[in-house]
């Protein structure tokens, strides 16, 4: 028996990296998992892997910046599994993102970036919250980052927005027994990170981390499962750092 038996979870950006780890862990704990990603091939591969291990999964396409796409994702989930209990807003533009300053980044790129990395969490939450409420409530996790407290141009700005969004939505959704929290990872050893962040910069960051290493995707899974579970049933509106001690907040 898994702790999420008979539960339905949507994980966006689950076609690889951290989202894949979340989706696979939820499936191992008994949840029916929707592997949602704009990368349909990646999503299908992850869903097939889950099913090969005896889990239940459905790959769905989603552009989290599009309300129409998010609604289609939610509707397809309802049609397949009968309800929605959990949402993990993990999708983001990161791998291959442009490195630029707020004052010089191309404006169209900036707007697209923010529509995914900040607005996407709200778009997907709006698409599912009524369906969660019909099941008696649910739980949502937003993917933040320690970049919210460091200089990191528009990426950090988006993650600071995700933190505030988490707190605002916790107030709006609490009366429907829907909890919403955020996970703020430090530097994680993913292909997206390796392809985006200069490795000399990563080395300097790691030197300042008390646990003296980059994180691995598995380091985040425990927090994800905890926050979705009934063990966290009186926790909402919080941002949890999983970062090896990179950021201290008093």
From TrEMBL:
InterPro entries: NAD(P)-bd_dom_sf, SDR_fam. The keyword Signal does not apply. Pfam families: adh_short_C2. Keywords: Oxidoreductase. One of its GO terms (molecular function) is oxidoreductase activity, acting on the CH-OH group of donors, NAD or NADP as acceptor. The keyword DNA-binding does not apply. GO terms for biological process: fatty acid elongation. NCBIfam families: PRK07231.1, PRK07774.1. PANTHER family: 3-OXOACYL-[ACYL-CARRIER-PROTEIN] REDUCTASE, CHLOROPLASTIC, SHORT-CHAIN DEHYDROGENASES/REDUCTASES FAMILY MEMBER. Belongs to the short-chain dehydrogenases/reductases (SDR) family. This is Short-chain dehydrogenase. It comes from Mycolicibacterium anyangense.
